[in-house]
Amino acid sequence: MHSSFYLSYLLIAANAIVFIAETVSGGSTDSRTAIRFGAQTTALVKEGQWYRLFTSMFVHFGYLHIVCNMYALYSLGPTVENLYNPWIFLLIYLGSGLCGNLLTMTAELRTGRYAVSAGASGAIFGLFGTFLALLVFPETRGIINAQSVFSTLAVNLVYSIVNRRINLWAHLGGLAAGTVLTLIVTAGILYL
């Protein structure tokens, strides 16, 4: 067990700084402002702006969006960071967000319907995936409240399905990536 949460808090601070900058530069609910700050649009990623697959994790639409995401990061991030170390936490977080954005782009390329996408929720769903993966190993199962994980995840997934403004693909891609990355990391720590 480690006891440093500085990367979780640095990520929260970075998201807050970007949000403040968005707000004073045209409004955090304005799509054009979001694009200027690095939101993902499949059309621009196709043109070579691959950085948007990462920068979009720090752009949010409105106060409710950032408050919900940062509360989730504040609740989940330090626990994952404490279980492993800050760098493994960062790998899971950014890797999950990237995979969520890649799945979003893949879905949009298949349908031909492009949207402006932003937010940390793909990365945060990856942290949910961490808790799911920890339930697999007998050595870590006891430190996770399975009922709490499943109920919180179920509520979030149902809300993602019901609310069409939410990027379900980012959530599913992040959840899958976080689960797989955690399985790999934990198996390596426990059995190698």
How helical, in percent, are the residues? over 70%
Q: Note the total helix count.
A: 10
Class per helix and strand makeup: mainly alpha
Number of strands: 2
Mean pLDDT: 94
Order of helices and strands: HHEHHHHEHHHH
| Low-confidence runs of at least 5 consecutive residues | none
Set down the secondary structure blueprint.
Blueprint: H1 6-24, H2 31-36, E1 40-41, H3 42-46, H4 52-55, H5 62-83, H6 86-111, E2 116-117, H7 121-134, H8 138-141, H9 146-162, H10 168-191
Helix pairs in contact: 1-5, 5-6, 5-7, 6-7, 6-10, 7-9, 7-10
Please describe what this structure looks like.
The chain has helices at residues 6-24, 31-36, 42-46, 52-55, 62-83, 86-111, 121-134, 138-141, 146-162, 168-191; strands at 40-41, 116-117. The protein has 192 residues and is mostly helical. It has a two-stranded antiparallel sheet with strand order 1-2. Helix 6 runs antiparallel to helix 10.
Question: What would a concise description of this structure say?
Answer:
The protein has 192 residues and is mainly alpha-helical. It has helices at 6-24, 31-36, 42-46, 52-55, 62-83, 86-111, 121-134, 138-141, 146-162, 168-191; strands spanning 40-41, 116-117. The protein is built from ten helices and two strands, in the order ααβααααβαααα.
